[in-house]
Amino acid sequence: MPQTLAFLLMFLAGIQAEQPAPAQKPPDKGPGYRIGVAVNQIFLPVSARSYEGGFVRGLTRDDFQILEDGVKQDIANFYAEASLPIHVVLLLDISGSTRSVQGEIRRAALEFVRNLSPDDKVAVIVFNYQPRLILNWTNDPNKIQLSLESVYPRGNTVLHDALYVTFDDLLKGVEGRKAVILLTDGADTGSMATRDEAVRLALESEAVVYTVSKLDEYWAGAIAARMEYQAASQLIPEELTDEYIIANKRFLQRISEQTGGKVLDTRTYSTLTEIYKAVADELKNQYYISYIPRNILRDGSWRNLEVRSLKSGVVAATKPGYYAPREAAAAQQR
User: What's the confidence (pLDDT) of residue 329?
Assistant: First the structure.
């Protein structure tokens, strides 16, 4: 996408300024670890919960069944909860609308890092009028605190551009478990990347996206602002309309749910720290399961996924599916 060249170069310069540690790779991975090579091995983050909602630990590969388009698949690799390190991107909206909650964001981010395992890594990208990498891969809470203290919220929001560089640059080449925790109100006031591009890259990256959504707060503010425009007989800006906000809400749900994550509304939790802790708990209690698809066609089609628990009283969940590679793209990677 040529239009994004300017901010991509700035972003890459930030990456080069502090090179990350070598990516952690799952042990004993079979040939064709990444989608698009000679043999596709599909990796799935799987959550297992009781009917009451609690995490279920101690399960084995024999407790799960994977189906692709309704066809049972053979499990190739199985990793118990928290047995593999994870790379997590904290993707933070620092537009002017977040100025009042910066202190809470810092506290939540630091608490999140403290809940991770020693081998896990975190990077921080902030975005307003452009995305900016302020901290490359680390597990040092002090570095994270210093990086967040250097942030001053202001300006507009390029959410789609921030997602674009997160998946297409920072996470490219990072193998193993990956997650993105996106804090945003869903508004985008100037991106050159599109929603569809962001979703496509998210799926290709194999990262799970958790969205900490302040959209309902934005919506309440938009309703109040609309009343002022109406009272002054002025034209209401598009970003204050219900149609615009609903489209943003659907986008956040789409990019989260299609990658196996979820949207967490800030109005249903008492603090941001509580939300980030909930995400950390889910990541620590996930299983990581892989299989080699029986369907070997490289046709770019959508493949529906289902993970079933064979253990009584346990409900398993993963992402709803993935796009198969196309032959041309696969040939380029061989």
Answer: 53
